[in-house]
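HOLO CASE FILE
Compound: zinc ion
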Amino acid sequence: MKRAVIAAAVLALAGCTVVNEHRAPPADWPQLEVTVEETGFWETQEKCGRNVAEVILIGPMLGCAYINFDEMRCRIYLWLNNVLAHELLHCRGYDHYGSSDLRDYWETWKKENQNVQR
Ligand SMILES: [Zn+2]
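Model generated. Tokens follow.
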């Protein structure tokens, strides 16, 4: 459940600002199975965790990357195709500028899974 919450937090932030391509992703970032799904406007908002009020106040999500380390998958939901390259960078472990959400999620997941294995 905690993981799902972290994933949701990652999800909500993905796709909103500029990816920091100058800061390398974690060296041990895993190879994720990437899927891309083109979704309609409201479906994209729903998948990307943005409600109607947020769409009005902040603006719509163009797309997002939903990373799940339990499944080792990165699901991309796209309303506009021109954010595909951006979302693919998230699948490879790149965070937004000033953010470490993906790195933090990976570090947390690793710790939790080490504990499970012992
Ligand atoms: Zn993004």
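CASE NOTES: The mean pLDDT is 83. Helices lie at 2-13, 41-47, 52-57, 84-91, 101-117.
CLOSED: yes
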